Amino acid sequence: MKSEDLQGLRGIAVISVVLFHLKVKYVDNGFLGVDIRLLPSFSLTILLIVISMPFFFILTELDTSADEIYEAMPFLINYRFAGQRESYWLKDQNFSSIVMHLWSLALEMQFYFVVPLIFLVVNLFDNSRHRLIVHSLFFAASLWSHNNESNESRQFYLLHNRLWQFIIGFVAQEIDSELSKTLKM
């Protein structure tokens, strides 16, 4: 059974993101549709985990799981996993973090906090080519960090080691913008 009000909220979220990407006037904050869609389900997930913990965990696991939930709530759980020095792909089958699945959401939310700072720096340059150079420098720094990180967990879980993947999109947008200007001439 689908909840119509939740479907309506999802619809508004998706439409706002699409309109934002189409650069529709007055939809400057359409990207917030991502948060509108993710935060209710994230909050519900955390609530259900907290409610179910006493029924599915032995007492010795409760403290660790509670600590993990505290780290997941402000979207910092990826730092805990990065410190474990164990590859995500090689996790022991007995590894039982109740919030393991939230590492990527934490990384995404950190991205949403960091990217405005990057754009603030990039937008100090008025020329598209200069912005492309600055994006490229951020890309190179992140890729260098990723390639020179010897700890696989840190390489996998931490934003500065993954930022290069996001910056590819920024660079593509700058190139597209520059090509559009060139083709209009």
UniProtKB/TrEMBL annotation:
Keywords: Membrane, Transmembrane, Transmembrane helix. InterPro entries: Acyl_transf_3_dom, Acyltransferase_3. GO terms for molecular function: acyltransferase activity, transferring groups other than amino-acyl groups. GO terms for biological process: polysaccharide biosynthetic process. GO terms for cellular component: membrane. The chain crosses the membrane at residues 36-59, 98-122. It comes from the Eukaryota. The keyword Transmembrane applies. Residues 80-174 form the Acyltransferase domain. Pfam families: Acyl_transf_3. This is Acyltransferase 3 domain-containing protein. It comes from Pristionchus fissidentatus.
